[in-house]
Structure formats: structure tokens, C-alpha cells
Amino acid sequence: MKRAFISVINDLATDQRVGRVAKLLSEQGFEVICLGRRLKNSPDLKNKPFKHRRYRMLFSRGPLFYACFNLRLVITLLFVKKPVVMISNDLDTLPANFLASRIRGVPLIYDSHELFTQVPELIHRKTVQSVWKLIERILVPKLRHAVTVNYSIATIYRRLYGTRFKVVRNVPEKLEYTPRKIDPAAKQMIIYQGSLNVGRGLELMIDAMHYIQNVRFVVVGTGDIEDELKQRVVQSK
To answer: What is the pTM assigned to this prediction?
Structure first.
């Protein structure tokens, strides 16, 4: 069976884009192995159409975290049974995937979920940002297969590095459901599902709940600002 390795530094339980790609490849007859990170509160991955390996990291952030993750990732990719394709999600998994791809002669697909060097976590950290920009300048022009989430990002990468990015949008799966009547007296629910990072508007949403009647705001996910969000909820009561 054809094997595909998908790498992402996020928790595999909450990354919906990676989950959809894995499901699609599985339906196309691939044996899919997802490589990611295990957090202290990561849920078990049950009933998923892919195998997985999640790394427990000694460091949770900073240069040592990214270096150690990519080291473990490249060791895995170099010594597992040879796949037919590797998929690297975002710049923080690209160094390991690029190196393993070149050494083993395996096609690499780079999936950029965002303009990585312009995320809020890096904007005011110029030294760290410059390191990621250097990695991007070295590796992205050498990519043969790359995708991203919209045409504006694809255009920017094309202008910066001359690399053509195809667009694969983030579109929810179509689910069959039975319409139901809404009880005006019952509390409705607003759900956020995804990573808990700076720049997602979660702090504003928590504050805004004071002005929204008869609604619950449910957050599903983990991330760098999880503790800060919990504290904000406590303080807002």
C-alpha cells in the first residue's frame, strides 16, 4: 500500500485541515501516518482514518522546542519505511521534511496554512522573525509542490520567491442533518474550534459575551494562550 506521511506541529486532535487531508488520502487508498505533537491534555485519537505518532516534547516553546521537534521529525522520516509522499504543514515542520525529502528522494508537498512570518506571535519579535524569514527564503524557492489556503497568500509567495502555490481552501465538510426548530427560550451556542493563539479574537469574544443574551460561548482546542483565556473568563464573572 502507498504510504503518505503528514507532519504538523499542532495537536492532531484539533487540526481540522490536516484531518481532512488525511481522510482524503485514506479514501484514495493511501496508508496515512500523521506526525504531530502530544500535549499534556491531548485527547486520544479514536476512529480516525489514519495512523499517528505524537511526540512528547521536553520544551513547550522557544528555539529549543522547534529544534527538538524537527530533529525528532527528521529522524522519523529518514528511518521509516519509504513513503511515496511527504506533506509538511507550515514553516515550522518544513526544515525536517525538506531534508528528509532530498535525502530519500521522496516528493514533498508544502501546505502553508498562513503567512507564517507575519503571525501575531512574531510581529514584535524581530530577531525570531528574522530567523524564520531566513528559513523561508532558503527553502520556499526550492519547493516544487506547494499549496496554501487562499489566493492572496499564494500571490505574496509568488512575488517574494517566485514559487507557485496552488489554492486549497479551508471548507467544512458537507454533513447531512435534519433541520430542527429553535427554542427561543433555550440557550444557543457559539463554538470556536481550533488553536488558542494570539490574533484569533478570542479575548474580544470572551469580553463580548457580557453583551450577548441567552448564548454560551464554547471553546474547543488548546494553544499558547489557553491559561490566559481561562483566567480572563474567571476575571470576567
So the answer is: 0.80
